[in-house]
Amino acid sequence: MPVRGLTILVAADDGDRLHAALSFAAAGAARGDRVRLHLHELAVGLLRPPIRAPADADRARTGIPMLAELLEEVLALGVAVSVCQSGLALYEIDLATLDHRIEAQGPVGLLAAAGDDRLMIF
């Protein structure tokens, strides 16, 4: 029986929600699961420098990875990270300015790639 993967969709301009989504993506990838993470529209703005979440200072103080660190960890673990083309346009972000491991993808492409994967929405 084929193994189902995990597709995580972040649809809000909320750094702490993105941190939670990245945490689940990292956990799945560390388990050996196939994981993809997609930032939809407003969530794309969270990738503008500096990449940070409201609770990052508390995280740093307690040894929990901050948002930018967790994003790098997820990319290093091989999670397929994509961003909404509309979100790029909305925030006037050039894809070339983002990490080269992040790709642009629309809803149709994301759903086609997800197939039978489980879906989590943050």
From TrEMBL:
This is Peroxiredoxin. InterPro entries: DsrEFH-like (IPR027396). It comes from the Bacteria. Gene3D superfamilies: DsrEFH-like. It comes from Rhizorhabdus wittichii (strain DSM 6014 / CCUG 31198 / JCM 15750 / NBRC 105917 / EY 4224 / RW1).
